[in-house]
Amino acid sequence: xxxxxxxxxxxxxxxxxxxxxxxxxxxxxxxxxxxxxxxxxxxxxxxxxxxxxxxxxxxxxxxxxxxxxxxxxxxxxxxxxxxxxxxxxxxxxxxxxxxxxxxxxxxxxxxxxxxxxxxxxxxxxxxxxxxxxxxxxxxxxxxxxxxxxxxxxxxxxxxxxxxxxxxxxxxxxxxxxxxxxxxxxxxxxxxxxxxxxxxxxxxxxxxxxxxxxxxxxxxxxxxxxxxxxxxxxxxxxxxxxxxxxxxxxxxxxxxxxxx
Length: 259
Description:
By secondary structure, the protein is an all-alpha fold.
C-alpha cells in the first residue's frame, strides 16, 4: 500500500514540476514578477501554487522517459511558451519607458537617472515615473490576475507535449515589437508637440532679438513648459498607458490561441 502511495506521489510531483515550467518561465519574464526585488523563493512558491491549480483543472501528461530527446524538447518548449508570454507583456511595459526617455531628453532631464527596480539598469526619472504609473494601472486593472488566468487556460489551448510553437508564433512577437515605438510615441506626443512648438518660438525670438541668450532663456523655459504640459497631459497619458496594458494582455491571449 505504501509503495503504491509512493508511486502516486512521485507521479503527481512529476506532473507538478512539468506544469511549473511554463508558469515559471512566465514569472521570470513578466513585468512585476520579474523585478529584481522579488525573491526567487517567492517565484517558486507562486509557480507551485499555480501549478497545483492547473493540475486540479487540466490533465498534464508527463512523457514516459523525461531524460529522452522528447522530454528535453517538451521542457524547452514549455519554457519558451512561458518566456514568450512574459516578453509580450514586457514589450507593452516598454512603451511608457521609451516615452519617458524621450520626454526627459526633450525637457533637459536626460542626465537625471535612477535605478530601474524592474531590471536594475539606469533610466531617466521621467521614464521611471511613467513605469511606476504603468505598474499601478496594471495592478488596478487586475492584470496580474488576468495573466494567471491566461497561463492556466493555456493548458487547454496548448496542452503539454504538443507541437505548438511555429514560425508564426515567433513572427507575431516580432510584429508586436513595433508597438513599443508606436505606443511610446503616442504617450509622448502631447509633451513632444508642445516642446516642438516651444523650440520654434525660441528660434523665432533668437532671430528677432539676437541679444537674448538661448541657454539662459531656452533651457529654463523648456524645463518649465515640459513640467506644465506633462501635468496637463497626465490624464490622457494615463488612458494611453491603460490601453497599452490591455493591448499587451490581449496580444498574449491571441498568441496563446485564445481568440
